[in-house]
């Protein structure tokens, strides 16, 4: 499981953008819960902010939170918190259903309950003693 988490962190769309993701791993950013959580966090924190730049080189500054998000990733300029939450719910729901499917498919397994040996021997001796008493 830890290698999967590491892959989700690496291919979350911010460390390696979706455009630069290897073709065989195109699906990784889409199923990364880390990506959707981080995206929702960024949108929530930076959306609607206005910045004041007092630097000499204004080209390095951003005026709004949306501009800052666009610098991080192109997907953030069109993303919404609601969309990120729906994606997270879909991923977690699919994981829950898969877990349920595996558990239902395997079925419960029960051990056969047996009395401890020493109790069986005691009960056997007692039964023989009672049968001896009743026969005589």
Task: Write the topology of this structure.
Layout: H1 2-10, H2 33-46, H3 65-72, H4 81-106, H5 117-135
Helix pairs in contact: 2-3, 2-4
Gross morphology is rod-shaped
The major beta sheet can be summarized as:
none
Helix content: 55-70%
Tally of helical segments: 5
Q: What is the average of the pLDDT values?
A: 83
What is the C-alpha radius of gyration, as a whole number of Å? 32 Å
Residue runs with pLDDT of under 50 for 5 or more positions: none
Helix-strand makeup class: mainly alpha
Write the element-wise H/E pattern from the N-terminal end onward: HHHHH
Kindly report how far apart the N and C termini lie: 71 Å
How many extended strands?
A: 0
Q: Approximately what portion of the residues adopt beta-strand conformation? A: under 5%
């Amino acid at each position: 499981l830890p290698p999967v988490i590491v892959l989700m962190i690496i291919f979350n769309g911010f460390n390696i953008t979706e455009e630069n993701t290897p073709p065989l791993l195109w699906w990784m950013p889409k199923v990364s819960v880390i990506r959707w959580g981080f995206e929702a966090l960024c949108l929530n924190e930076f959306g609607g902010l206005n910045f004041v730049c007092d630097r000499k080189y204004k080209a390095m500054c951003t005026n709004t939170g949306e501009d800052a998000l666009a610098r991080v990733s192109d997907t953030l300029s069109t993303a919404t918190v609601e969309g990120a939450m729906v994606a997270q719910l879909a991923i977690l729901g699919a994981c829950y259903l898969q877990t349920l499917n595996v558990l239902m498919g395997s079925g419960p397994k029960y051990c056969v309950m047996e009395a401890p040996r020493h109790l069986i021997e005691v009960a056997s001796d007692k039964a023989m003693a009672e049968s001896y008493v009743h026969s005589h």
